[in-house]
């Protein structure tokens, strides 16, 4: 089973990247200031989680190209350039965090199925009231199944190696 892919387009320290990787995520770094929608979409293809700076515009056109996206994490003071309604229509939680360390903390909560306290649209992404639980999302379930297989030493789903 493959690990959930987190694409990071914000500055992260090696320690933050290591901490996120140790949570079981496959981490991919891309240039923080990617010019153009097509390049960002190509670099982030296959990402379950996308971590962007608050200055990057996220609208329907980008979301249409990121079919695997499950969670959008925005670092910075606001999410004003994110079309939260477009994310909500796709049931993608938008998390606003102040910095990379907070993003890593949210990834830890995602991996454990804990409440996402920084979600700006929890009432619009799942038919439950807040707090939003990643456990009800596809990637969360796949991630936990892979981690359980890895811990037990058993093969993952369909006989796949969990690592």
Overview in brief:
This protein has seven helices and five strands; from the N terminus they run βαβαβαβαβααα. By secondary structure, the chain is an alpha/beta fold.
Question: What topology does this entry show?
Answer:
Blueprint: E1 5-8, H1 14-22, E2 26-29, H2 37-43, E3 49-53, H3 60-65, E4 71-75, H4 84-89, E5 94-97, H5 100-112, H6 122-125, H7 138-152
Parallel strand pairs: 1-2, 1-3, 3-4, 4-5
Helix pairs in contact: 1-5
How would you describe this protein?
- Helix 4 links the parallel strand 4 and strand 5.
- It contains seven helices and five strands, in the order βαβαβαβαβααα.
- Strands 2-1-3-4-5 form a five-stranded parallel β-sheet.
- Helix 1 (14-22) runs parallel beside helix 5.
- The protein has one domain (5-156): NAD(P)-binding Rossmann-like Domain (Rossmann fold, 3-Layer(aba) Sandwich).
- The protein is 37% helix and 13% strand.
- It starts with a strand and ends in an 11-residue tail after the last helix.
- It has 163 residues and is of the alpha/beta class.
Order the strands across the largest sheet as they lie in space: 2-1-3-4-5
Structural class: alpha/beta
- Report the β-strand fraction as a percent range: 5-15%
Order of helices and strands: EHEHEHEHEHHH
How would a crystallographer describe the biggest sheet? 5 strands, parallel
Portion of residues within helices: 25-40%
The global form is globular
Instruction: Return Rg in Å.
Output: 15 Å
Q: Which CATH first-tier class would you pick?
A: Alpha Beta
